[in-house]
Amino acid sequence: MAKLFRKIPSDINPLKHLSAYYALKKRELLFTLFYMLAILIFPWLAFLLVRLIATFTLIQPNSILGHSISGIPNLILGLLAIAFLRIDDWDFASIGITLKKIIPALIFVVLVLAGLYIILPLGMAIFFEPRTLQISFQGFTPVYIILFIRGWLIVGISEELAARGYLLNKYYTLFPETIRPIWKKIWAILFTMLFFSLLNYIRLLTAGHMFINSTTLLTYFAYGLGVSYLYIRTNNLFVAGFMQAAFIFPPLGLIVGKEFALLDPGFIVSFGVFILFVVLLAETYAYWGKALEFANPQAKTNEEAQNGAEQKA
Question: N or C: which end of the chain has fewer CB within 10 A?
Answer without folding.
Answer: C
